[in-house]
Target: Stress-associated endoplasmic reticulum protein
Amino acid sequence: MSLLPLQSLLLVQAQTLQQRRANEKYARQEAAKRGKPESAIKQKQKFSPPISPLWIGVLVFVLCGGIIFELLRLFF
Model:
Protein backbone atom coordinates (compact mmCIF):
# COMPACT_ATOMS: atom_id res chain seq x y z
CA MET A 1 0.00 0.00 0.00
CA SER A 2 1.37 3.42 -0.99
CA LEU A 3 1.20 6.58 1.09
CA LEU A 4 1.49 8.83 -1.96
CA PRO A 5 -2.24 9.70 -2.26
CA LEU A 6 -2.42 10.42 1.48
CA GLN A 7 0.65 12.66 1.33
CA SER A 8 -0.68 14.58 -1.64
CA LEU A 9 -3.93 15.23 0.25
CA LEU A 10 -2.02 16.60 3.20
CA LEU A 11 -0.10 19.08 1.03
CA VAL A 12 -3.22 20.67 -0.48
CA GLN A 13 -4.26 23.82 1.35
CA ALA A 14 -7.65 25.42 1.36
CA GLN A 15 -8.04 28.74 -0.40
CA THR A 16 -8.30 31.70 1.93
CA LEU A 17 -11.10 34.20 1.63
CA GLN A 18 -8.67 36.88 0.42
CA GLN A 19 -7.34 34.56 -2.31
CA ARG A 20 -10.86 33.59 -3.35
CA ARG A 21 -11.93 37.23 -3.68
CA ALA A 22 -8.80 38.07 -5.71
CA ASN A 23 -9.43 35.09 -8.01
CA GLU A 24 -13.07 36.10 -8.52
CA LYS A 25 -12.07 39.69 -9.31
CA TYR A 26 -9.48 38.49 -11.83
CA ALA A 27 -12.02 36.13 -13.43
CA ARG A 28 -14.53 39.00 -13.81
CA GLN A 29 -11.89 41.21 -15.44
CA GLU A 30 -10.88 38.46 -17.87
CA ALA A 31 -14.52 37.68 -18.69
CA ALA A 32 -15.12 41.35 -19.52
CA LYS A 33 -12.23 41.26 -22.02
CA ARG A 34 -13.55 38.30 -24.03
CA GLY A 35 -14.46 39.06 -27.60
CA LYS A 36 -13.13 42.62 -27.57
CA PRO A 37 -10.24 43.87 -29.72
CA GLU A 38 -6.96 44.48 -27.93
CA SER A 39 -7.09 48.22 -28.59
CA ALA A 40 -10.37 48.48 -26.67
CA ILE A 41 -8.94 46.56 -23.72
CA LYS A 42 -5.80 48.61 -23.16
CA GLN A 43 -6.23 51.58 -20.88
CA LYS A 44 -4.16 54.73 -21.00
CA GLN A 45 -1.26 54.46 -18.64
CA LYS A 46 -0.33 57.47 -16.60
CA PHE A 47 3.34 58.38 -17.02
CA SER A 48 5.27 58.65 -13.81
CA PRO A 49 9.00 59.32 -13.65
CA PRO A 50 11.13 56.58 -12.12
CA ILE A 51 12.39 58.94 -9.38
CA SER A 52 10.65 61.70 -7.48
CA PRO A 53 11.14 65.40 -8.26
CA LEU A 54 12.87 65.85 -4.89
CA TRP A 55 15.63 63.42 -5.87
CA ILE A 56 15.96 65.06 -9.28
CA GLY A 57 16.55 68.39 -7.47
CA VAL A 58 19.15 66.81 -5.20
CA LEU A 59 20.92 65.29 -8.19
CA VAL A 60 20.95 68.61 -10.08
CA PHE A 61 22.28 70.39 -6.98
CA VAL A 62 25.07 67.85 -6.54
CA LEU A 63 26.04 68.04 -10.21
CA CYS A 64 25.72 71.82 -10.70
CA GLY A 65 26.03 73.14 -7.16
CA GLY A 66 29.83 73.13 -7.20
CA ILE A 67 29.91 75.31 -10.29
CA ILE A 68 27.43 77.76 -8.78
CA PHE A 69 29.43 78.05 -5.56
CA GLU A 70 32.67 78.57 -7.50
CA LEU A 71 31.09 81.38 -9.53
CA LEU A 72 29.79 83.02 -6.33
CA ARG A 73 33.26 82.75 -4.78
CA LEU A 74 34.90 84.39 -7.79
CA PHE A 75 32.55 87.37 -7.87
CA PHE A 76 32.22 88.04 -4.12
